[in-house]
Write a structure and sequence with these properties.
mainly alpha; single chain; 4 helices; 106 residues; 2 strands; two-stranded antiparallel sheet; 54% helix
Length: 106
């Protein structure tokens, strides 16, 4: 390879940096809409906000995290998103653990 780290590697690296820089340090006490969030859920939900726009103008509008927080997500949608995280993480546990090991060596 010519030094190109590839889009998947770059996305994982970016997500890791964002999680470590944006997620609260004490994730054991983060509760939103009555749900105690895991670090994986916090990363996913935070990414959903910063990667989506509000479509408030023709250019796509502002990133949702400019004006909204996790508390602003509809409670029923929030519960579904958390359940999807649990199902994904549970079904991919082996790969997630292996990935964390590889990422920690970057």
């Amino acid at each position: 390879m010519s030094g190109d780290i590839g889009p998947h590697h770059e996305a994982r690296h970016t997500a890791r940096l964002l999680y470590h820089n944006l997620a609260p340090q004490d994730t054991t006490t983060m509760i939103v809409h009555g749900i105690k969030l895991t670090p994986f859920q916090i990363g996913y939900l935070t990414a959903a906000l910063f990667s989506s726009n509000d479509e408030s103008d023709d250019s796509g509008g502002d990133p949702l995290d400019d004006n909204y927080t996790l508390d602003n997500i509809d409670p029923s949608s929030f519960a579904v998103m958390c359940a999807e995280c649990d199902a994904f993480e549970g079904g991919q546990r082996h790969d997630v653990i292996r990935g964390e090991d590889r990422v920690s060596r970057l």
